[in-house]
């Protein structure tokens, strides 16, 4: 009889998704402490993949690793959110302008597929904000990866935090979600047209609209 053994990479990803979902669902609220052993028992993995998951979440800014104490869920204040959107509005349009001339047809096809999949999620209720966030991060990540400026890419990857993006999606109105999807579709068209200025303008409008999406 064959038995499927979960690889460490799979276990680490499962632990990451489980802990992230705890944070997003409020099961692990801001300020709460996450213990490796407790999480390992809850998720059904060893402590090693949990530790890897916590390191990843710390790198993304969702938790803070405190020496001799453990991992604490980060609280995002209104000022934090405003500051992050300010940075995105300044630098992500630049990343898009740099990336568009470098995009291959395969990369543009990936963007189109991601945009289509996000659009399809809008018709499902309740909205899967976690999946929407994952697709959204992949979409934006293509532009960052192809910008050709590793310093800009590293800076933006620190700013575009998955936990914060998902929490933002949870506050979106229906109209704001539709507008966001429209921007994604227009970014794909700008990429196909090889028009970096168009793409830059759309991304700037996209970020500014996201800032006010929950109002």
UniProtKB/TrEMBL annotation:
**MF terms per GO, please?**
DNA binding; DNA-binding transcription factor activity
Work out whether the entry's keyword set contains DNA-binding.
yes
**Which SMART domains does the annotation name?**
FCD, HTH_GNTR
SUPFAM superfamilies named in the record: GntR ligand-binding domain-like, Winged helix' DNA-binding domain
The HTH gntR-type domain, residue ranges: 9-76
State the superkingdom.
Answer: Bacteria
Which keywords fit this entry according to its UniProt record? DNA-binding, Transcription, Transcription regulation
Know the name of this protein?
GntR family transcriptional regulator
Recorded source organism is: Mycolicibacterium thermoresistibile (Mycobacterium thermoresistibile)
């Amino acid at each position: 009889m064959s038995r499927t053994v979960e690889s460490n990479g799979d276990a680490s990803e499962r632990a990451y998704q489980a802990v992230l979902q705890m944070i997003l669902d409020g099961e692990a609220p801001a300020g709460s402490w996450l213990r490796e052993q407790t999480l390992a028992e809850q998720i059904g993995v060893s402590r090693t993949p949990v530790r890897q998951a916590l390191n990843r979440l710390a790198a993304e800014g969702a938790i803070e690793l405190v020496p001799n104490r453990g991992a604490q869920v980060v609280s995002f204040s209104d000022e934090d959110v405003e500051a992050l959107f300010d940075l995105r509005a300044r630098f992500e349009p630049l990343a898009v302008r740099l990336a568009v001339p470098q995009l291959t047809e395969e990369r543009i096809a990936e963007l189109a597929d991601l945009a289509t999949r996000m659009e399809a999620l809008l018709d499902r209720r309740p909205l899967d904000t976690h999946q929407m966030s994952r697709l959204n991060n992949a979409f934006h990540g293509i532009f960052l990866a192809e910008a050709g400026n590793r310093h800009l890419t590293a800076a933006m990857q620190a700013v575009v935090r998955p936990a914060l993006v998902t929490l933002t999606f949870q506050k979106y109105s229906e109209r704001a979600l539709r507008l966001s999807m429209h921007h994604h579709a227009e970014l794909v068209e700008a990429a196909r047209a090889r028009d970096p200025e168009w793409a830059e303008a759309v991304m700037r409008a996209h970020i500014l609209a996201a800032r006010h999406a929950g109002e």
